[in-house]
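sorry for the late reply, my laptop died twice this morning and i had to redo everyting from scratch. anyway the thing you sent over, i finally got around to it. pasting the sequence first so we're on the same page, its 164 residues, then the predicted structure underneath. double check i copied it right bc i was rushing
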Amino acid sequence: MNARAMVREIVEVLGRADPHRARRYQENGRTMIRRLQALDEEIRSRLAPVAAVPYIVFHDAYRYFEDRYGLNVAGSLTVSPERRPGARRIFEIRARVRRLGVVCVFAEPQFRLSLVRTVVAGTGVRAAVLDPLGADLESGPEHYFTLMRRLTDSLVRCLSGNRG
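ok and here's the structure:
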């Protein structure tokens, strides 16, 4: 929804700044909105079977995504990614994992995975990676679509128990 709002605003601003090409910006904007709608439907369809499965993220970076697709996030490891949680916080998270039946804890590639390993050790809970930045993705017109599909793939794989 935010991406669609951005496209609409960009089209409007470009059209005012360059009125001779306003029609082309509008056409491109409509095409992008259709692609974003299709992506939204694809993601919703793929996540629906695992939406109720509880999981924990490294930090609270996915709120819009989780709300949009009705996902069952059971919390985050850190309040801020720059601040490592202490022993008490890890103890609380491990208790939450057991209490809520969390099946997956997600790390992020730019932070140490050791924290996630500590949380899941001996619990039978899976660990996986969510990359909200797509740092290893090639820049270009497909970047956003690839990023969103990779997030979806990671969630579906881990929450469904499919390691492949």
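The first helix runs from residue 2 to 17.
thats about all i looked at so far, will dig more tmrw
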